[in-house]
Design brief:
Blueprint: H1 3-30, H2 37-55, H3 58-67, H4 75-91, H5 96-119, H6 122-147, H7 151-159, H8 165-191, H9 205-219, E1 228-230, E2 236-239, E3 242-247, H10 254-272, H11 289-303, H12 307-321, H13 330-337, H14 354-369, H15 378-390, H16 416-435, H17 439-444, H18 449-458, H19 468-476, H20 482-493
Parallel strand pairs: 1-3
Antiparallel strand pairs: 2-3
Helix pairs in contact: 1-2, 1-3, 2-5, 3-4, 5-6, 6-7, 9-10, 9-12, 10-11, 11-16, 12-13, 14-15, 14-16, 16-20
GO molecular function, one term: metal ion binding
Binding site for Zn(2+): 263, 267, 293
Keywords: Carboxypeptidase, Hydrolase, Metal-binding, Metalloprotease, Protease, Zinc
């Protein structure tokens, strides 16, 4: 075989290992009995070490060098070679014992987080989270030395290749200056409109699940290559061609689970739409988490909180829960689904206040990775940041710094991609609606094919061929830019 062919076989095996890890991790988060946690942690740690050993195989360096001289490589193959080099460089920075220790620490911390969150007991989580943070600092330092990056940027680079905190700082400082005043304006405009009454529950879980599955099908989710389950924190995971999503249900408010399902379906559509010919190769993966979050937020916030969508969804909601009366009409539902409120929980936040939740987490994790703040001070710093950015303080740590699984699960550097994704979502949805005149009318009748077809061509099917700004520029005419996002917020929330 040629050097390039040898690389594709090898990276195909790494992908197969990732698939196995993905299903075991999904099971850990959904169905695994608590008593299996220790043995599952051992199994996942072993598989991750084996995967790491495959990714740093000494043959790879020789093959990568030789493959660069192969004149027959096309555009996709050259991009695949570039992505292979990126993976190899990052992985060779980490020793196997650090990979193993990190995997075990994360498994232990995730299980401790579930109980600590339920009990609102940050001190119970502290020693487990401290060990995860210590190992993340080590990983960031090791990767940063190899890549010429700060430890935080090296961790960020795993989730958003090429992403840099200096760029994020400028974007987030701009949003942090813009959002408080805009929020006040939007709340004032909201106060001039009729206030929708809460819908009376309870809303049976099975009815919520059925409605969620109908919406997944409308959006284009392929149930032959995935499934819907329950977890403490909603997520999209699984494996190639087995893309599984989860949600959590509240019988007092069906909107939380429904919008969670729609959000995770956006992720799943991206995964199900990746280029089939390169599915097991680095270039066939999603570009990064900014674009991944753009797809979930495009569906949840841009498309499915629109008047068009709620006109389609209103009769399905009434049918699912035997609802009737004016509170179940599309206009009342739209006012409810676009209601602004200063809340404690990120995943339940509206799109106006959501960026403040992310900016808080970004600033805190940067400080923690830099060892500029003791981890024990996290609850107090969290509450102070909530007061500054959102004007509210959570009454306990379950509604505060314990609400997200990202830090216990080792996801340091992930949080900024949510709001960067919201900015990208606004750009992509605007471009799709301009390019596809039937996108919004299609949503109004429950036909997402025009919108998803455009996304398949311009985002999903591109895999990791282009970097984020290049993909956005080709698709929307500009790199990542908060201007379209701000204009969208003004149109939706300032009109009386």
């Amino acid at each position: 075989m040629s050097a390039y062919a040898s690389l594709t076989v090898h990276f195909g095996r790494i992908s197969a290992m990732s698939n196995a890890i993905g299903i075991l991790q999904w099971d850990s988060d959904t169905m695994m009995p608590q008593g299996a946690a220790a043995s599952r942690a051992e199994s996942l740690a072993l598989l991750r070490v084996m995967q790491h050993e495959m990714a740093v195989d000494p043959h790879l360096g020789d093959w990568l060098q030789a493959a660069g001289d192969e004149a027959s490589l096309g555009t996709w193959e050259q991009a695949n070679l570039r992505e292979m080099r990126r993976v190899f460089t990052a992985q060779t920075a980490l020793p196997a014992d650090l990979v193993e220790a990190s995997s075990k620490a994360i498994s232990a911390c995730e299980m401790a987080w579930r109980q600590a969150r339920a009990d609102a007991d940050f001190p119970a989580l502290l020693p487990y989270l401290a060990e995860v943070l210590r190992l993340q600092r080590e990983a960031g330092a090791a990767k940063g030395e190899k890549l010429g990056l700060s430890p935080y940027d090296a961790l960020l680079n795993d989730y958003e290749p090429g992403g840099r905190s200096a760029t994020i700082d400028a974007l987030f400082d701009d949003l942090a200056a813009f959002l408080p005043g805009f929020t006040e304006e939007a709340l004032a405009a909201q106060a001039r409109r009729p206030t929708p009454a809460p819908l009376a529950g309870p809303f049976a879980v099975e009815a919520q699940r059925g409605l969620g599955q109908r919406m997944m099908a409308a959006l284009g989710y392929d149930f032959d290559r995935g499934r819907l389950d329950i977890s403490t924190h909603p997520f999209c995971g699984g494996a190639d061609n087995d893309v599984r999503i989860t949600t959590r249900y509240d019988e007092a408010d069906f909107s939380k689970a429904l919008m969670g399902v729609i959000h995770e379906t956006g992720h799943a559509l991206y995964e199900q739409g990746r280029p089939a010919a390169f599915m097991s190769q680095p270039v066939g993966q999603a570009r990064g988490m900014v674009l991944h979050e753009s797809q979930s937020l495009l569906m949840e916030m841009q498309a499915c909180r629109s008047r068009e969508f709620l006109g389609f969804a209103a009769p399905l909601m009434r049918e699912a829960f035997n609802g009737s009366g004016p509170d179940w009409e599309a206009d009342a539902l739209w006012r409810r689904y676009t209601r602004i409120e200063r809340g404690f929980i990120r995943v339940d936040a509206d799109e106006v206040t959501y960026p403040a939740h992310v900016i808080l987490r970004y600033r805190l994790e940067k400080a923690l990775i830099a060892d500029a703040m003791p981890l024990a001070e996290l609850p107090a710093a969290w509450n102070a940041g909530m007061q500054e950015l959102l004007g509210t303080v959570p009454p306990n740590d379950r509604l505060g710094c314990l609400q997200d699984i990202h830090w216990p699960s080792g996801g340091w550097g992930y949080f900024p991609t949510y709001t960067l994704g919201a900015i990208a979502a606004a750009q992509l949805f605007d471009a799709a609606c301009r390019a596809e005149p039937d996108a919004l009318p299609g949503i109004a009748r429950g036909d997402f094919a025009p919108l998803v077809g455009w996304l398949r061509t311009h985002v999903h099917g591109q895999g990791a061929l282009l970097d984020t700004d290049e993909l956005l520029t080709r698709a929307t005419g500009r790199p990542l830019d908060a201007g379209v996002f701000k204009a969208h917020l003004a149109r939706r929330y300032l009109a009386d």
